[in-house]
Specification:
The complex is a heterodimer of chains A (about 700) and B (about 325). Chain A is α+β, with helices and mostly antiparallel strands and about 700 residues long. Chain A is built from 26 helices and 18 strands. By secondary structure, chain B is of the alpha+beta class. In chain B, about 45% of the residues lie in helices and about 20% in strands. Chain B has ten helices and eleven strands. In chain B, the strands form two sheets. In chain B, strands 1, 2, 3, 4, 5, 6, 7, 8 and 9 form a nine-stranded mixed β-sheet that branches. Chain B has a two-stranded antiparallel ribbon with strand order 10-11. In chain B, helix 3 links the parallel strand 1 and strand 2. Chain B starts with a helix and ends in a 12-residue tail after the last helix. The chains are: A alpha+beta (about 700), B alpha+beta (about 325). The interface between A and B is large, with 43 and 36 residues.
Chain lengths: ~700, ~325
């Protein structure tokens, strides 16, 4: 026999972003506990709303599976007297296994005769074991934040009811101070309850009758369908926003979508301002026309049945208008003067404690943007420098400084105010783009000026913080320097920019008051820090960590070049000569360790193998140089691979560490030349071969 | 003005809430007589939420946030506004229902509106207080802040209180169907604007333009040292009064633009230190008084056979 299990934790409204992870964890934990508890089951389904996390498991076995095991006890000669009567050792062993002495037998284990018993642990009924399993599963759910409410328990919000039923029977269990009852609760305002349940079978029906759609996907698709329809009725299209959709799906139990209107005059505000006013605080979707322009409508997902929407619409319209009014007020105030006129006010805004004002940062950004632009020989250098001047000015505008939800529009407002101040479009775009990328997977700057400024801003922040000793450690990274460094790496890589890190860092360092003796240590620390992030970026891209390490070991400063080399090495990893070359290069590196080498004079090489290696080296050197000069890194690696045989032959026939000082010097010099060839591509000795221990 | 007639007068809203919570068993108190930034600063909340004793209280609190002044031009933002504050300690299991029923008491039909609880965790850096809860929305408008206190005066709270803070202005605009606080009808023929607009204009001028900066800096320093002096002597209530004055002086300086970003944290930490000192002193004082609001059994358990514990002067 088997029965369906229903487990529901009823909670006061859980924060929307917590719910999906919580139900996923709960489901995984229930499954894990059932398996560990040896309870067979069929399918597991999950349900979640702001007020409940629920799981239905079909066909849960009525009893745990039996466990059979063989146990070996004391040696037979100890357990039984010569006449065969059991000693204390035998009775003690039988007792410890819960069997009679008569059940014991004797087996030859290979090491002699030992007492043995076959034990069957009979499973307990599901009713008895489930409460503990479910409690353990619920306890294992973690939330970003938890609270106490008086029962000594912690959860995202107070737990208020509990359902735990096997078919029609309620389990005798308690969780978070609540005893399980055969009843659930409906919509908080429309049909609170309690509503009796017959079990898993009528759970969804009972809830739906009481204005709760417990199935997450069903709620989500109801919302999309209704939103698309409502948008169409306003003569427009729904502006899709998956993050917002996820959020509203977990803000309501019984969704209804309606469209509201606002005055067309507000459409003069920048699109992002309107969208943020709707989305960030009110959680409304926007509606756009075929041509992508906004329409004066919003879509609200209410937590009510249809039919009561008119009054609700009016209220929501009023709230949105007051937010748009605020935005319009800020816009009017901010556009009284030009964006340039706000730069002066940056003097009064501290950038970071001990690192001066945003005005000083602006000065540094202008210089750094110029240095980077010139280094890249960019035609947009002047645009980038102008954008640097204005990049931070929006932080002192009313909209961004004081505008509550509008503060997230930093950069975007800079762009809009620059346009309103008749700055060139290239400057406006660069102001916006200098914040890109803002998070993993975000857009990258699309213009040269934006790229230059994005690099300058990140460098300035990282170098500034390192110079002041604000260095990330462990989980401590208050200024998000890791994220900024990853952004920097991505921008340089995607742009294919020839920007040696050392030059960049030293240029950025000039803007700070770094004591003379500290400049090199700070520079080294910053480069090591960026290199670590680059390593992570490459590995994230799917490259093997050892190839990444092999390349970064010799090319930490040139990210674009490093990436090309990693690609080439990855291409040849499976080639016939690759493994041989790695081993050969290790021998070279090991033998040279700590030994100075001179330049080789080919005429002094006596053995054929030495001469052959030097010949190959010279040929490969030219080949690699020519391949690298045309950016053909595959060609360069192919050249290196051709060294494999000459290296092997050399080590097979030549004894490097001879007693003859001169000869030894010549041979070491030869190998030094070979090593230098590798160094131009990668430190092959860092490559991990199949079957080797990974050493990080 | 037929629209207005449908909703309650502003003063009726307060009266009905008073009735509702008095009926429930709350002590109905009056506002505190010193400037506070929110009803939470009133000792009836900030101090009473500490320690093991039960407490149920409700009161109106005129709250001052100098920075929020808009010269009477913004319809819903002002430097002084009215909160209706309820503190229930310990938080009853049905506290959310109690709250929603209070909305019915002021004429809000639950089935005619979209009432929602949207995550909003609360923190007061100056009070060293924090809690988890929601903002309550009605048809998209935030009308109440609901918080389960977890910490106050830098101390973890063993007994969790529920704090309900109604934004009376917003609720009234909703009920009366008007867009601006100033248009609200407070009493028959007397508007909120008549009572408060002039006051808003003048205080905005004071907070943003006129408040004497060196004078307020000096006030902050003097209030701070007076608060420390009193609290160190174990004189609780006057000491806390000066903590509040200190906090308000900071708010005026902040509105006046006299506090740089870097100074801010330092000022807030100084007020928090005072708040913490007050909280510790209050907890000690209640214990010395023998927890008068606790039932006999609980008191005996906490004090050990009812014996009054008087501690030495360490603080």
């Amino acid at each position: 026999m088997a029965r369906d299990l229903l487990f529901e934790i009823g909670v006061e409204e859980i924060p929307a972003s917590y719910i999906q992870p919580a139900i996923d964890q709960l489901a995984a934990a229930v499954e894990r506990e059932l398996r560990a508890g040896r309870l067979g089951f069929g399918e597991l389904r999950t349900f979640a709303t702001p007020r409940r996390l629920a799981i239905i498991v079909s066909q849960v076995a009525d009893e745990q599976e039996d466990v059979e095991r063989d146990v070996v006890g004391p040696p037979a000669r100890v357990a039984f007297a010569e006449d065969g009567t059991p000693t204390k050792a035998a009775t003690g062993f039988a007792e410890s296994q819960g069997v009679n002495v008569a059940d014991l037998d004797v087996r030859d284990t290979g090491k002699g005769d030992y007492v043995h018993v076959h034990v069957v642990d009979h499973g307990s009924p599901s009713f008895e074991v489930l409460p503990e399993l479910l409690r353990a599963a619920a306890d294992s759910v973690s939330f970003p934040k938890t609270m106490r409410w008086g029962t000594g328990n912690r959860f995202a919000r107070p737990v208020r009811w509990l359902v735990a039923m096997l078919d029609g029977v309620t389990l005798d269990m308690e969780y978070a101070g609540i005893h399980a009852q055969p009843e659930t609760w409906g919509h908080r305002h429309w049909s609170p309850g309690p509503h009796p349940l017959a079990g898993a079978g009528d759970y969804l029906d009972v809830l739906e009758k009481n204005y709760v759609i417990a199935d997450v996907e069903m709620r989500r698709s109801l919302i999309i369908g209704a939103a698309e329809k409502a948008a169409e009725e306003c003569g427009g299209l729904l502006v899709r926003n998956d993050a917002l959709l996820d959020e509203v799906t977990f803000l309501v139990e019984y969704p209804s979508v309606f469209a509201g209107r606002f005055d067309e005059g507000f459409l003069d505000l920048p699109r992002e301002v309107i969208v943020v006013a709707m989305k960030s605080h009110q959680r409304y979707f926007a509606v756009e026309a075929e041509d992508g322009s906004l329409r004066p409508f919003f879509l609200c997902v209410a937590n009510v049945p249809r039919g009561q929407l008119d009054g609700i619409r009016a209220g929501n319209e009023r709230v949105l208008v007051s937010r748009l009014d605020d935005a319009a007020f800020y816009w009017k105030e901010d556009t009284r003067g030009s964006l340039e006129s706000k730069v002066e006010a940056l003097r009064n805004v501290t950038w970071l404690e001990g690192l001066g004002s945003l005005y000083e940062k602006t000065d540094r950004l202008e210089r750094l943007a110029r240095a980077i632009g010139e280094r890249l020989d960019s035609k947009e250098t002047d645009l980038a420098v102008r954008a640097a001047r204005l990049a931070k000015a929006d932080l002192v505008t009313e909209m961004v400084r004081d505008g509550k939800e509008f503060t997230e529009l930093q950069g975007i407002m800079g762009r809009e105010y620059a346009l309103a101040s008749d700055e060139p479009v290239g400057v406006a775009t660069a102001i916006y783009e200098h914040y890109l990328p803002r998070f993993a997977g975000d857009l990258l700057p699309s213009t040269e000026a934006g790229t230059i400024l994005s690099i300058a801003d990140r460098l300035d922040s990282i170098v500034g913080c390192f110079s002041a000793g604000f260095i990330p450690s462990g989980s401590q990274d208050p200024y998000a320097l890791r994220r900024q460094a990853i952004g920097l790496v991505r921008v340089i890589l995607e742009g294919g920019l020839d920007l040696p890190l050392g030059d960049l860092v030293r240029a950025a360092e000039e803007g700070f008051d770094v004591a003379a003796g500290d400049t090199e240590p700070v520079c080294d620390a910053v480069i090591a820090f960026i290199r670590q992030r680059a390593r992570a970026v490459f590995i994230e891209e799917g490259f093997a960590y050892d190839l990444v390490d092999a390349v970064l070991e010799t090319r930490a400063e040139d990210l674009v070049g490093a990436r090309k080399r990693i690609v080439a090495l990855s291409h040849f990893r499976e080639a016939d000569d690759f493994k041989g070359l790695v081993i050969g290069s290790r021998r070279v590196v090991n033998i040279l360790k700590g030994r100075p080498t001179d330049k080789v004079d080919p005429s002094e090489l006596v053995e054929a193998a030495s001469q052959a290696l030097e010949g190959a080296r010279a040929r490969v050197e030219a080949g690699v140089a020519s391949a690298v000069s045309t950016d053909d890194l595959n060609g360069a690696v192919r050249e290196l691979l051709s060294l494999r045989r000459p290296i092997d032959d050399f080590f097979d026939s030549v004894m490097v560490m001879t007693e003859d000082d001169k000869l030894r010097g010549v041979r070491l010099a030869l190998l030094g030349g070979v090593r230098d060839l590798f160094t131009g591509i990668a430190d092959f000795s860092k490559v991990v071969l199949e079957g080797e221990q990974i050493k990080e | 003005m037929t629209e207005k007639a449908e909703g309650l007068l502003f003063q009726d809203i307060m009266l009905r809430l008073q009735d509702y919570w008095a009926e429930y068993g709350c002590v109905i108190l009056q506002p505190y007589n010193s400037e506070v930034g929110a009803g939470t600063f009133n000792p009836a909340t900030f101090l009473r939420c500490l320690g093991p004793e039960p407490w149920k209280v409700a009161y109106v609190e005129p709250s001052r946030r100098p920075k929020d002044g808009r010269y009477g031009e913004n319809p819903i933002r002002m430097q002084q506004f009215l909160q209706y504050q309820v503190l229930l300690k310990p938080a009853p299991d049905d506290v959310l229902d109690l709250y929603f029923r209070s909305l019915e008491a002021i004429g809000i039909e639950r089935k005619k509106h979209d009432l929602r609880l949207v995550e909003d965790d609360w923190e007061s850096p100056t009070l060293g207080a924090a809690g988890l809860g929601w903002e309550v929305w009605i048809d998209g408008m935030e009308i109440t802040q609901f918080t389960y206190f977890q910490q106050a005066g830098g101390m973890e709270l063993d007994v969790v209180s529920a704090e309900i803070t109604y934004g009376l202005g917003r609720i009234a605009t909703f009920l009366q169907g008007v867009d601006s606080f100033f248009e609200l009808e407070w009493a028959p023929g007397v508007s909120f604007g008549e009572l408060n607009r002039r006051h808003e204009i003048e205080f905005s001028k004071f907070n943003f333009e006129e408040a004497d900066v060196p004078f307020h800096r000096e006030l902050f320093e003097r209030f701070e040292s007076e608060a420390h002096r009193l609290l160190d002597k174990g004189i609780l209530t006057p000491g806390y009064d000066y903590v509040l004055k200190c906090s308000h002086a900071f708010n005026v300086l902040d509105a006046r633009g006299a506090i740089s970003v870097s100074e801010r944290t330092g000022y807030i930490a100084r007020v928090r230190k005072l708040a913490r000192k007050t909280a510790i002193l209050y907890v000690k004082q209640r214990k010395e008084l023998g927890y008068p609001l606790l039932s006999g059994d609980e008191r005996a358990r906490l004090l050990g056979d009812g014996e009054r514990v008087v501690e030495g002067g360490d603080s």
